[in-house]
Design a protein that fits this description.
Length: 121
Amino acid sequence: MGSRRCQPFGYHLVNLLLHAAVILLLYLVLRTLLEPLPRAATVALAAAWLFAVHPIHTEAVASIVGRSELLAAGFLLVAWLLHLHDRPILALVCLVLALPVEGIGRGLPPLVLAGDYARGS
């Protein structure tokens, strides 16, 4: 019987795909928030690219334990996007899914309040 070797490629690929999904969600949230501005899509895209390549995310993407951060960020951004599109029940479901994954889910209420205030709603 040969020994089993750990093949990390699959774990890294899943984390990379989750990071890509978080980047896309961030772009969508920012584009929605900045909609009244003349260059909202450009600003949102630049911010999403900066988020994508920032070195602070290396551990979350490269390490399997970082997956919880990616999942929490994804659920948080989906919840915020759903809130922005007036889907409160689905937003609450996503928030509940983000809470146990990481403490980052607790950051949504202040983000929502700040975003609503900035949009004048």
